[in-house]
Amino acid sequence: MIGGYDHTAHKHKIVCGQEKSPKDGEIYNVAMTMTLRKDQPNEEVLYLSKFTSKDIRALALKCGVRGGGNMTIFTARMEIARSIQMGTMYTDLSIANPGSDAAAVRINTLIKLLNICFHADNFTAFVALNDSKGRKDYEEQPLSEKGVSGNPVKDFWLLVSDTMNETDDDSFDTVLGLQEGENDRLSAWNQDNGFNLKDISRGHTFKTVKQHVCDLMKSRERCRMEMKKSGEHSNDLWTYCTTTKFTKVRKSTSALPAVTVYYCDYLCGQQPAIDGKFAAFMDEDLKSDSTVDFTGSADSAGSKAGKLAVSAVVESLATAPPI
What we know:
Blueprint: E1 13-20, E2 27-36, E3 44-47, H1 53-62, H2 73-86, H3 102-118, H4 123-129, H5 135-139, H6 152-165, H7 184-192, H8 206-228, H9 237-241, H10 244-247, H11 258-270, H12 309-316
Antiparallel strand pairs: 1-2, 2-3
């Protein structure tokens, strides 16, 4: 609900037109305006040229534009127009973008989840709390040093789940390994498919995020163990990441996407401290959540109070829900 109306009940139309580029002076087709509540008494026209960089990039992502995180406002408007012309989005943004499917949302969600755990702000706790030997020291902290639950393990995963459910924080939206020379496999996957860490599922609990990370670590370990076996085996971990035998961790859920297991291994490679310490444990209280899968969409969580009007409109636009 935005400004007293339900955005899904009205059409938000983007109109494209010709405009001179401020960079080279050439004329390009760009997205010009977006009409809210079209043909309604309170119809309103927004000029995309006046959007902030953050809002235009967010809108570009909603429109199916890949790799828009570093685009200028003008370039983002060009790509939005191109998406409309190529039919990769609906000009009626109240209808979900058909280019976003359940598989893509699942991949984006798992990648972002890994980014949060491996982020510099969280990594020390991530390793310590999952270290079968050192974890006890964390669990026996004085009460004054513990978080809201009094259990540092639970508090860590609460932090992760809260971050996953946050709609405004883009601190964890950068996929690593995509720069030239860093990782050819991830770069190729991104070029062919594209990551969009804005398009993720929400509504996570501390149990579900913990379970999914455990699944990824367990699958990664299976793949690495198979790769190290003697005999004629591939030295490319990707070979094993694409094999269901190693990536289907639980009977009740489908196999993990190959690129998520591979990305997990890539991040572990950047942090040698992870090996030999991480225990792919699963507490008894997690077993009841073993059937949890990804549901919802990038729009299923609420906005912060005081969010700017344009940002709220962009955030509200529908993306494809998982199927």
